[in-house]
Amino acid sequence: MLATSRERLEVDGEHVRQVRPLPAGGPGAPAVRLFLDRACAADPAAALHPPDAEAVAALCASLDGLPLAIELAAARLPGTTVSELAVNLRGRFGLLTAGRRADSRHRSLRAVVDWSYEQLTPGQQDLFRQLAAFHGSFDAADARAITAGRDDPAGVTRRLLHLVDRSLVTADLDGGAARYRMLETLRSYGLERRGEHGQLSAARTRHAPWAADLVAQAERGMRGEGEAGWAGILERHFADLRAAQAWLTDHDTELSLRLVAQLHWYALWRCQSEVFRWADSCTAAAAGSRSPFYPPEALATAAFGAVYRGEMDAAGTGARAALAAAAYAYGDRGDEASRLADQARAAADESRSPSALAFVSWVSGEIAADTGPGRARHHLHRAVTLARSAGSRFVAGISQVSLAALDARHGDPAVAFSQYERAISEWRQAGAWTPLWVTLRTLVELLARGGA
To answer: Residue 101 in contact with residue 107, Cβ under 8 Å?
Structure first.
């Protein structure tokens, strides 16, 4: 007997095979093929003028690759378009209805999720609603953190595993540690239910401090050789950090300032310019605050963001002072620059932070660029390698530009042009306008020397 179910049947001789959502990664993906097949069945005109496959793939990904959701969405095509469907997915439970199934439980997306939710105990339902606070993946400790005081730790873990058994939470066991996530469809449902129970504010009150504590741990961890690992954790939870910061800006000035201040170096090294916008918002909301994070750290982050975007007037006096304090190397004070670089190198060696080590190598390369091109190239290549190993896009970018300028002066112009092309593309992608302008300025010098 072959049976489908959202949980094990628990009978003798049972062999379980997990049926994952349909892949939606491109025009030929199974989710896209299903959508197009159902669209043609609902609207013969779709066979003559099929919708754009890339747009369909994006829509199917937003629907989590769930076959029922895809079928219901395709059935809507005679009266709308794929792009309009995608825009309206925030209200997916009201939109994806009127299926052609004989079973009433599968005639709408809400009906099938309602049925699964109603099978849970009150405690399991409560945990399901709380877990909807997470925008990305989480582990069992994270789940316990946002339910603190509501249940014993063992009870949270037991209920979490029950939700996994019921296919309401997805478990990823790769890498030796279990991580969990909710499909966006189920998360949206959990948020709706949480609102019905008047739990939205309480859940955010627990979620935001969890995110702030994660940032505090990462800020300490990124000072050493574990930098890349901690940076990866922040990347994985970035959507959670965004949501936490938005809530904290309106509800907890102190914690919002602390969060952006502790993200400063992460944002700088990795070209996460969005963090600088967070700093703008929270420092404006906290104007006149007596917080220890206001004004120095949070204001510095906001000011650097203005410089980063090229908004020099908005950066104010602090940013102009920082720009005026250029490296000694640019003022023909090479000996003093080398002495300070040695001090910085000693500190970086002690911390073993790849970004710090890379930054010092970049400084050393800049100092040696005119007097020792060979030594400069060695330092700059090391800076690029170290920076990329830790995902430090900013240091990798400025080092790449320095290598391009070095090749333009002392090497192969063709190689220099290739390096400039890559650097310009990466600065544009990151929204790092001031570094992009500096790159273009040095490129113009190369073009001018070549008579272009």
So the answer is: yes
Is residue 216 in some structural domain?
Answer: yes
d(CA 185, CA 181): 12
Separation of alpha carbons 126 and 106, rounded Å: 24
207 and 189 in one domain?
Answer: no
Work out the average pLDDT over 208-230.
91
- Same domain flag for 143 and 233: no
Peptide bond into 295 cis (omega under 30): yes
Report d(CA 332, CA 360) in Å as an integer: 19
Number of domains in the chain: 4
Which range of residues forms the domain containing residue 256?
203-293
DSSP state of 181: E
Q: Kindly state the tokens that stand for 360.
A: 């010092």
Q: CA–CA separation, 420 vs 404, rounded Å? A: 6
pLDDT over threshold 80, residue 344: no
Q: DSSP letter at 432?
A: -
DSSP 294-333: TTHHHHHHHHHHHHHHT-HHHHHHHHHHHHHS--GGGGT-
In a domain, 115, yes or no: no
365 and 411 housed in the same domain: yes
Q: How far is CA 354 from CA 100, 178, 349, 430, in A?
A: 57, 28, 9, 20
Q: d(Cα 120, Cα 186) in Å, to the nearest integer?
A: 14
Q: Picking from 15-19, 215-219, 242-246, 322-326, which range would have the lowest pLDDT averaged per residue? A: 322-326
